[in-house]
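QA checklist item 7 of 12: single-chain prediction sanity check.
[x] sequence parsed
[x] length recorded as 437
[x] structure emitted
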Amino acid sequence: MMSRRLPLKKRVLFFVVVLSTIYGIMELAAVFAHRWGQGHWYTWAAASGERRDALVSHAKTQPSPPHDQSFVIHPYLGFVAKPGWNEEVKKGPFLWKAANVNRSSDGFQSREPVVQRRAQDTVVVGICGGSVAKMYYRQGIHITLNDLHNHREFRGKRFIIVSLALGGYKQPQQLMALNYVLAQGGELDLLINIDGFNEVALHSAENAKKDVYPLYPRSWYFQVGQVRDPVLLRQVGISALLEERVQSWANFCGSRPIRFSPTCHLVWKARQRNLERKYASTVSQIANHKSDGGFEATGPPFEPGSDGELYEHLVAIWKRCSRQMHGLCNANGIRYFHFLQPNQYVEGSKPMDEDEKKIAVHHDHIYRPGVVHAYPMLSQAGAELRSEGVRFIDMTQMFSETWEPVYVDDCCHFGERGNEIIAHEIARAILAELERE
């Protein structure tokens, strides 16, 4: 007796039901796997946040600016940004609007041209420093200026903000940036310099491994030495490819409709961990690779007798450069304000809950030794600068009573709330100095 075949519609329906059941079981299993592995139930919002946080976390471990195709060598400043920079790509969006927004073509990521002229109805404000100063320019300067605008000296005037800050800048790059603007005929009324971290944290982790002179810009060896080194070029290329895969994989899993799938998120987490491991290994190979880059890549020899001697040297560079900026500003009618930036590795500088600690603190971080050993020296040197007449403000304890999270990575960077707190403190310090004068 021959068996009757089910009608096509019923067969299709049967397969749809089977596949749907299998898919449902997979999704349910993924939900429980997430609960077992993460300690909390899967939610769409949490999954989206994990992918976003993973990209932020990855960004902090990127090779330094010389590997970033948006930076180019500069004859006086070490490196600058290429014209046409994308203002919204890295380190958070701008939180303020400018009347005449443009993209500066002189290498600085400034919405206004950095060469400005004074006028009776304007106040030209410059910002110097590294990535923390750049993020303050994006997320905090408008708060500072709003606090200042009612002071009798600024009332009724329009603020023009120019940024001389770039990620990775360290002294003497701030000093050279100021000189470069002044050499072009630029004028400022107020200059805010936020630094200290890069000056003591970057050298041991980067330039020192290649025997590069401490005054040279970060990772200078990679700026000029990689041109002749095929092994290093290959490693840098691999790191760039892995970085692109991290970005594209997160974007793919964040697209509709699969971003709502627990199974997809579980697969994303597994592959993300694999990509991060490969990326970390490649970055380590780049950092430890060594070849003869020549004098142009390393500069004059420098061999400190101990870590203490090294950090004393780095702090002395920072102090001398700030003193020179103070003198330059005085000679050109500019009020110079120097702020030592906070950092989470300064002992007792911020109370943290476990969630913020997971994001902000890793005791084996490559930048931590510089902070632990040299930040007390920076505070002491800053006090000496202040006794010499420099408007220096130590902000290392700025978050000492702030329980809410402010750090967004385990390096040094703040989120919007952290920049808001810093912005109010900078305004308070400036107003206090103006009243004192």
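[x] summary fact logged: Residues 60-66 have pLDDT under 50 and may be disordered.
[ ] second reviewer sign-off
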